[in-house]
Amino acid sequence: MIIRTRVHTASRTRVQAAGVAAAAALLGLLCAGPVAADPAPVTAVVPSPAQASQDQAEAFFTAYRNARLGTTEDATPAEVRTRFLTKELNQALDAWAAANTGKDPVFRAPNVPSAWTFTSQGADGAHVLVTQKWGDGTTADVPYTVRPADLMITAIADSPATA
Question: What is the rounded distance in angstroms from the CA atom of residue 111 to the CA atom of residue 119?
């Protein structure tokens, strides 16, 4: 005796869908290729203390210059000084400005430099020489000291410019 069973259309659709899903999964495994090991961790590149100090001096100098020229709405020169300089240095710059009427305590001149360069000095990475240049060709070297622990600027040497 032959028994015929009839698969209902809904059941047939479910069976076909299951078969397609299984085939897709198998195909995905076959096409995926070898499984890669976990990628090597990305290590952050930490700048040397000298580079970090130089970058901080440059960030301060640029922000302060822009604030002095009024080309930024971010902060006033005093706010820039507060953000980058220690409280003691800010007080020393105020005293310097009082003794050198008409000169900016950071630039050590009555006007704003038109160009500048930064050079790291010393093995400890805490010293940066800022060479300021003015439109008339004069230059002045002003040493900065940056505390490596928190990158706060702790000293700007008293090397007044002649400009």
Answer: 22
